[in-house]
Amino acid sequence: MATDFWASSHNKRWIIDRASLKQARSEDLRYVESPEHVDFLNIYFANLIAMLGKRLTLRQRVIATATVFFRRFYVKNLYCETDPFIVIAACCYVAAKAEESPVHIKNVVSESRLMFSQEGYGVKNFPSDNSKLAEMEFYLVSDLECDLVVFHPYRTLLTLCGREAAHAVVSEAGEVGVGIDNGPRYWGTGEGRLELEEGPLQTAWHVIPPPPSTLHSTLLRPKTDQIRALNRFIINDTYRSELCLLYPPHMIAIAAIYLTLVLNDKTREAIQAQTASSTPTPTPRRSSRTNTSSVHRKLAAAPQQQQDFVGFMAGLRVSLPTVAMIAQEILSLYTLWERYSDAAPESGLGQSAVGDTAGDDVVTPAFLTQLLLRMREARLADLAHPASAQPMAVNKRLERTQAAG
Amino acid sequence: MVDDWSQAIQHDVMRIYRAKRDEAHRSVTLKYTILGFISSGTYGRVYKAQSKDEDARLHAIKKFKPDKDGDIATYTGISQSAIREIALNREICHENIVALKEVILEDKSIYMVFEYAEHDFLQVIHHYSQTLRSHIPHDLLKSLIFQLLNGLLYLHDSHILHRDLKPANILITSTGIVKIGDLGLARLTYQPLQPLFAGDKVVVTIWYRSPELLMGSKHYHKAVDCWAVGCVMAELASLRPIFKGEEAKLDSKKNVPFQKDQLLKVIEVLGKPDEREWSGMKNTPEYHNVKRLDDSPNRLDAWCKQRNLPPLAINFLSKLFIYDPDKRMKAREALSHSWFQEDPQPTFNVFQHQLNTPSQLPPHRRITLDEAPSMMPAQPTHAQHFPAQFTQPQHLPGQTHGSGTSLASLSVGHGGHTRKKARLG
């Protein structure tokens, strides 16, 4: 199970198609002016999970698991009918246990209260009572159908990038077993590992270096140190989107490797040199596409370089069009993210919540919290008034709960 | 009125959500008829139940203790052990592991619904030692161990350590299939974020605990389960635990003490571990304590011969009792051991050779009325007719149902010794 993704609950029950995902958000979309706002909420909540995770000193994998739990929960539920803040806290609490590094419920409650009450988030009524969070945990585990083992792209990365794994023991010890033999890969690839060098490739991949790397300068505008720390990994970044619901983790990892290869100056040049010597490239439409198509090409004529990146990608025996699609989605996530700023709560800057117009304005947490409240009010009004859905049923339910609690 | 309502909702947004979920919920008693109480432990209670579906299948429902704040049950967070057992059981599927049918979260309690198993290893041991007063037939013993290892191999291949293998936790269905149960102490060891020791200071019930654990190793692996299999096999052969030591209790600061008595019991049979054969021994925290213990010769061979084990079985057992965990026989190697190739070969139904002599078969699991506040339907004075529900033979013919011969409990130890391991953290 730990090694067999195909037999896992993750693969069997939690990879969903785009139509189901669209269906899950359709009600929420009724209450926002622009569909983009829901995407911004996706980024916002993932950031909150990451930040709460840091406060609780959770490892990156735990934060990733918490985010997946959160996404799964909202496949079944609506933003406008629930309180995402307590769901976030419960996701972190359960993920820590599921990943065998538990934190005390008391700490989760106090850290959540502290963080969410900050100006910029403006959540004033986070419950102080442990039992409220424990109750949410109960409902959350039930909605997750008790599927608590989650697969992440990190593992593929470490397996595919052979030498990297050795370095990672130092930098990212969390992802490496303690004296335990590694299981076989679970996606059935070709052979060979990608040898990552000490140079730009590794750094672009693992830690964005202080001098802006290609990726960073072209895709992300500079942010505060704290936020940049969160932006360090492409894979981590993918959790800001709903990719983890749509694609198996190894495909996301491969897309991230691919992006790293084509966005890093050195490796891009190597690939270009490798492909230039073979058949001429078709007219490029977009830069990323060029490289996608070149990846498809057989490497027969390629000169024997120290690293055969094209051959490596071709040898993976996964659907490269799908990899390209995921890569595109990651790029559009970065485009969207560029307009999001959550510098506000920590530094006290940028409290200027932007108006209702979506446009190209910067979106802040304060704006999104307000948006969420408005969505919720509008939803309540709809539920309460006979004009929309089935108000009688809802009222009855409500009376029952009021009588009960 | 709508205003009041929306205020209340803004105050506790999750009300609508909970109301929806509660309404959709199908309760345990709606889905299952509770037939009786099987056993209890630190985790909670186990009930025998029958599905109200058409298949009317039997189940064992494990109800985790609800957390209590005084007399009122409250939410205090799901325990690490419950999370583990649920998470692991949702992923695994193997013939020799008890299958989880579903988990129901209801009214602050967690109910895990498992397939029902009529017998367990401990019950078989008791049946032979108390009722039949004879050895367990060699074919039965071999089949039990073979299927146990088959299940264990699946767990280990899935990077799961069981960490609590003992006769009471290894079940057998009425059709003679061995099922490993109770994954409450099991854990996934693939790329752990913390050393195993950090989560649980003490693992494995003392009599089945491997030497590396007894000597305080903080890093360990599958071999701890393989040692436990050896202990279980020896117990099947002699009808009593082979290393029946006294557990030294944790001190007030919850430090783990040196398990001297248990180690002495091991050394009595196997002799003292030799540094030349187990180089890692020097690095264990209790190394110096062990060095001071008296030596004794290895008399496993004689021990086995007294219990009529054939030479290949002795060879097999001695490999499970290798001190060095890295050299100890693992599940895969064990399954291809020549003992299993030799006649009698292991059978699909472990009771294959006992089917013609039904008295050889262990009795059905005894169930009782639950004396504690429980999920049993309130039945005023039904003491006489209640047992009729469960003493009728269901699958196996002609059994003895004497209450003295069967065990009331799945996991509570026999012989007045505490078999429970301390759970910390």
Automatic annotation (TrEMBL), chain A:
It is found in: Nucleus. SMART domains: CYCLIN. Keywords: Activator, Cyclin, Nucleus, Repressor, Transcription, Transcription regulation. The keyword Nucleus applies. It comes from the Eukaryota. GO terms for biological process: regulation of transcription by RNA polymerase II. InterPro entries: Cyclin-like_dom, Cyclin-like_sf, Cyclin/Ssn8, Cyclin_N. Belongs to the cyclin family. Cyclin C subfamily. This is Cyclin-like protein. It comes from Russula ochroleuca. The lineage of its organism: Eukaryota, Fungi, Dikarya, Basidiomycota, Agaricomycotina.
Automatic annotation (TrEMBL), chain B:
The keyword Metal-binding applies. GO terms for cellular component: mediator complex. The keyword Transcription regulation applies. Pfam families: Pkinase. GO terms for molecular function: ATP binding; cyclin-dependent protein serine/threonine kinase activity; metal ion binding; RNA polymerase II CTD heptapeptide repeat kinase activity. Residues 416-425 have a biased composition (Basic residues). Its EC number is 2.7.11.22, 2.7.11.23. Keywords: Activator, ATP-binding, Kinase, Magnesium, Metal-binding, Nucleotide-binding, Nucleus, Repressor, Serine/threonine-protein kinase, Transcription, Transcription regulation, Transferase. This is Cyclin-dependent kinase 8. It comes from Russula ochroleuca.
